[in-house]
Amino acid sequence: MLVRVSSGSRYADSKEEHKVNPATVTVVVVTFRAKAMIADCLDSLAAQDLPHELLVVDNASSDGTADVLRSKYPGVRVITLAENRGFAGGLSAALAHIESPYVALLNDDAVAEPGWLSQLLAVCESDERIGAATSKMILETGFPGEEVLNNIGVALTRHGYGFDVGLGLPASSAYTEVTEVFGFSGGAALIRTESLRAAGGCPEHFFLYYEDVDMSWRLRLSGFAVMSVPGAIAHHRHSATSDQNSEIFHRHNERNRLLTLIRCAPAGFAASEVLRFGLTTISLAVTKVIRRPVPPALNFRIRLRVGVLAEVARLLPSECVARRRIGRTAVVSRRSVTSAWVGAKPLD
C-alpha cells in the first residue's frame, strides 16, 4: 500500500498541522475508476461549512482518477492501494490513518449539499449514545420530475437482508424528521471513530456490500443507536461505479449477508438462514434437472449459489473467531437486537 500525503490550502497543510490541530471529522472517499465523477464529489466537500480533514482512498484506478486527484486536489491526503480492495478494503485502510473523533463516509458517485456534514455532526453530538448518523440520500435518476429517495438509512427483512429505507418515495415529503433506523448507509454517513474501532472496524474481506449492515449491527451490539438525519442531504448516482445486475454484486450480496448473520445474529437464526440458502440451492438444482423453469435472476443461478456456499464454508472458522470477539465486547444481546430490528417495520 502506498500512502501519499500532499499539502494544500483547503485542507491541512501537513501531517504536523493535522496532529497539532486535528479536525473533528475526517471524511473518507473510497474511489475506483471515477475520473468523470470524483471532482463533483470533492468539490461538494470543499463547500461544506464544517472544517474537516479529507482522505481519499484510490483503489488502484486505471482510468486517470489519480491524475485528477494530483492535478486538481494537491492538498488532499490520498492513499493509493496497489490493488482494488473494494469499499470495505479501502475504508479499512483509511481507518488506520484517522485521528479525528468522527469519520464520515461519502461515495465517490455522490454529491453532498452544503451543511451535510454539520447536520450529521450536530445529531451525533447531541447524545453520546448515538454511534452513527446517516443521510437522506436522493437518487440521481436522470429523469425530470420530483426527486426520489435512495434511502434514509438501512433496515432488515425477516431473513436478515438489508434494504434501503424509503427507496423510491418522494424525497421532499417522505421522512422529514430525525428518527432512529437500524443502520447507516455507507454511501453517506458519520460514525464515531473509536466506537467503530472498538466494535471491530470495517470487515475488509467483505470487499463490497453489507459492510455498512455489519458495522451498524456491531455498533448496536455495543449499545449505540443510529439516527437518520433528513437535513443532511447527498445526491447519489446509484451504482454509477458498480453494476447491481452483475454476478459480482449478487455473489457478494448473498455471501456477505450470510457472513454478517454468522458474525452478529443469534446462532440459531444464522444457522437457519445458511440452511435455508443451501436448501433453496438444492431445490433450484432439482428443478433444473427435471427441466422445470428456474427464475432468471442472477442470484438463482446454481453456480453462483454453490460458490457462495463454498466461500461461506471456507470463511466459517475465521468468522466464528470474529463472532466470539464481537460477543466479548457486546453490551446488548444478539437476541435483543434481532428481535427489535430484524423484520420490523423500518421506523418502528
TrEMBL record:
Alphabetized InterPro entries for the sequence: Glyco_trans_2-like, Nucleotide-diphossugar_trans
SUPFAM superfamilies, sorted: Nucleotide-diphospho-sugar transferases
Any Pfam family the entry gives: Glycos_transf_2
Recorded GO MF terms: glycosyltransferase activity
CDD domains in the cross-refs: GT_2_like_c
Chain ranges of the Glycosyltransferase 2-like domain: 26-132
Keywords: Glycosyltransferase, Transferase
Pathway: Cell wall biogenesis; cell wall polysaccharide biosynthesis
Family, as annotated: Belongs to the glycosyltransferase 2 family.
Protein name: Glycosyltransferase family 2 protein
Lineage: Bacteria, Bacillati, Actinomycetota, Actinomycetes, Nakamurellales
